[in-house]
Every structure is written in C-alpha cells, then in structure tokens.
C-alpha cells in the first residue's frame, strides 16, 4: 500500500461521515398528543374496563425480565399457557453476531385518546364473579395469549384471580358493563413496501450528502381491539392498520415526544392514532 497517497483531507471525509452518523436523530411524524374530545362522565367512566393498550420495550433474550407479578395467577398462566415472549432476530454489524430481542409490554397504557373507559387496575373489585363460566374465561385467556404470549400476564392477573375452591381462575367482580382489550399487533418495527423503497433510496443519498439529506422511512402500526360484555363474550372486534413516517439526520428537529428512544420497537406516541380510530368506531353509550 502506498502511504504517500494518504492525506489528512482523505481521512477527514470518512471520519466526518462516521461522526455525523452517530450524531443522527430519528424523529417520528406523530404531531401533537391525541386527547379525548369529551371527558367521560361519572355515569359512563366505569362502564368500560380497559385491558392491554400497552406499547413495548426490547429486552435481549438472555436478560431477566423485571417487574412481572408473582402469584398463584401468574404460576397458573405460566404452567398452562407458557412463558415465551414474542421475539425477533436483529443482525449485528459485519463480523458481529446478531441478537434476538423480546418485546415486553410496558406498564403504561395508551388510552388518552378515548372518551370512555378506565384502566382495569384502577377499577375496584370485590370478590369473584362466579357467574362467568370457565369456557368463556379459557377462550378469553387463549385469545389474549395468541396476541401477547407471556406478555399477557400483566393484564390477565389484574382481571382474574386464583379461586382456591374451584382450583381455577375466576373473574374479579367489578361494576363493569364492557371490557375492551387493546393489542398493538406489530411488536417490532416493520417497513411498508413503499417505506422500504424510500428508505433504500434516501439512505444512499444521505451517506453521500453527509447527512444533509435525511433518511426517510414508513412503517406499519397494526392494532387489534376486542370488545367483550361483562361475562367475557366477544361482541365486537376492530382491526386498525396505519403507518408512521420517520426522518433521520443530524439536523433533524425533534422534542421529547417525537424523538425515537426505543430500539427495534415503536415509542408510545406512534400508537395513539389507532386508539383514536377505535374511539370513533365504538362507544359504550
């Protein structure tokens, strides 16, 4: 190799490109917070118990997951329905092995866009509702596990308790007319077809413009909402498909709401539009 051809300027460009890449910010196009148009009245606020509606955070597969309850309810679910979480494999850099990540539900719920309903943990209960048959309970748990796997535990153990007499799970007794379940189906980021093309094109131009041209991406944000009556009979189901745009560059303006914080999964504001669509489609009144 002829070291005489290497000049300080020839080293400056790749070093600058590397520094700009690490200083890049990704910002979602999510707009202002979507809030309820009307406040729930005291007569209707407890009509609906909200279950799920949780965004996710990524955890490497070999790490211990913290914050999940330990109880007879938890033990029953783990033994009978499983302990796996949804996972996805992410390839590392060249010559670096990839890593599998788990999508773990956060404790916070995305419910602000709704005119109705209260998170189930905030609704007091007294005893157990023995009028709800075991088949309905099993169907509810099975449907929940189909969407969340072991991530279901956070919500199911708020809804059910262990019945030592029947030696099974029973529904906690609350003054609730409906239970509405929210699943953010797209656990990990997934590009739309249009987004993959635009991302590939803008990535090329962003590298050669040293980040002046931003990397643009569009990703799916699918949601599933299930509405049950007080006896856990499914009465309605709504599927909402949306997408979100993101922009990455060293000069991109962002704030605490729009700046991307999580890796591989969506930040909470991304899911608000789907919840707002549910609010338009259904009401307990």
Write a brief structural summary.
This protein has helices at residues 8-22, 72-81, 134-148, 153-159, 193-208, 272-281, and strands at 25-28, 48-52, 56-60, 87-90, 99-105, 118-119, 128-129, 160-163, 168-172, 178-184, 215-229, 234-249. With 285 residues, the protein is an alpha+beta fold.
Kindly describe this structure.
The model has no long low-confidence stretch (mean pLDDT 89). The protein has six helices and twelve strands. The strands form three sheets. The protein has a six-stranded mixed beta sheet with strand order 1-12-11-10-2-6. The protein has a three-stranded antiparallel beta sheet with strand order 3-5-4, with no helix packed on it. The chain is an alpha+beta fold and 285 residues long. It has helices spanning 8-22, 72-81, 134-148, 153-159, 193-208, 272-281, and strands spanning 25-28, 48-52, 56-60, 87-90, 99-105, 118-119, 128-129, 160-163, 168-172, 178-184, 215-229, 234-249. β4 (87-90) and β5 form a beta hairpin. It has one domain (7-281). 26% of the residues lie in helices and 27% in strands.
């Amino acid at each position: 190799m002829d070291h005489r051809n290497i000049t300080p300027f020839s080293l400056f460009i790749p070093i600058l490109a590397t520094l700009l890449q690490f200083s890049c910010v990704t910002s979602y196009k999510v707009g202002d917070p979507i809030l309820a148009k009307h406040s729930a009245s005291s007569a209707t606020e407890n009509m609906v118990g909200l279950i799920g509606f949780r965004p996710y955070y990524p955890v490497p597969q070999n790490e211990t997951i913290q914050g999940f309850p330990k109880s007879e309810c938890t033990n029953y679910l783990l033994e009978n329905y499983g302990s796996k979480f949804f996972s996805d494999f992410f390839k590392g850099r060249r010559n670096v092995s990839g890593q599998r990540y788990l999508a773990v539900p956060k404790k916070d719920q995305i419910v602000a866009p709704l005119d109705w309903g209260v998170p189930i943990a905030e609704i007091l209960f007294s005893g157990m509702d023995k009028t709800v048959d075991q088949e309905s309970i099993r169907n509810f748990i099975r449907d929940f596990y189909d969407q969340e796997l072991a991530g279901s535990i956070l919500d199911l153990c708020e809804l059910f308790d262990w019945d030592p007499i029947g030696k099974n799970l029973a529904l906690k007794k609350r003054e609730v007319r409906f239970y509405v379940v929210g699943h953010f189906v797209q656990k990990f980021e997934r590009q739309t077809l249009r987004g993959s093309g635009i991302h590939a094109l803008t990535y090329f131009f962003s590298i050669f413009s040293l980040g002046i041209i931003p990397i643009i991406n569009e990703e799916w944000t699918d949601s599933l909402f299930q509405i049950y009556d007080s006896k856990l009979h499914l009465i309605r189901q709504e599927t909402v498909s949306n997408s979100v745009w993101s922009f990455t560059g060293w000069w991109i303006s962002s704030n605490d709401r729009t700046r991307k914080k999580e890796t591989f999964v969506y930040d909470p504001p991304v899911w608000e539009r789907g919840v707002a669509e549910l609010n338009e489609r259904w009401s307990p009144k």
